[in-house]
Structure formats: structure tokens, C-alpha cells
What does this fold into?
Amino acid sequence: MHFTALITLASLLFYVYLGVDVAKARVRCNVRAPATTGDPLFERIYRVQMNTLEWLPIYIPSLWLFGFYVSDPIAAVVGVVWITGRYLYKTGYEEAPEKRSLGFMIQATATAILLFGATIAILYRLATSH
It folds into this structure.
């Protein structure tokens, strides 16, 4: 499970990067904590971080279950796709809200592959175990 572990760390480091982005945006846009509104650019950067946080509890367990029940290397590849989708979501959303869709669809598809792939593999094992 080394590949799954590495991509988990990469995913968490990406989330830390988003947190640093929010801190920088607070300074750049003059939005003092604890406020989360005020400047449209800050609000978009903040929403990227929060939306990513909302997806992590679905993505991370799905990643690990897929890695365990299906394939460690394939889970890692799909994890790279997830991070790429989140990055495209970030860059698109920061430019204009309507440009976030491609990144969102990429990461949502990656998550679905992990979630449903793991579910099917677990159900298959249950059905075929003696």
C-alpha cells in the first residue's frame, strides 16, 4: 500500500497548500479572520479550500479501500487524477466561478471510480468467498 500512502500524503500536502493560499488571500484582499466574506477573489479561494475539505472524507477512504481491494498502483494513479482535478478546479474558480466545472468533474469522476470500484470489489469478494 506504499503507492496509496504516498498519494494520500500528496493529497494532504495539496490541502495544506490550499490553506496557505487562503492565508495569503486574506492579506492580499484585506479580509481579517474570522471573516470569510468581503472580497470576491478571497471568497473563491476560500471556497476552493472548503470544497476540497468537503470532498476529502469521501475521497480518502475510497482511495484506501480501492487500494486494498482492487489495486494499490491504480489507486495512486486515480489519486493523481483527483489532485489534478482539484488543481484545475482551483485555477478555474479563482479566474471565474463558471470555469471551475472541468476540474470539479475530473475530481468527482476520480472519486466515483474509487468509491464504486471499491464497493464492487468488496461485494464481489463477499459473494465469492466460501
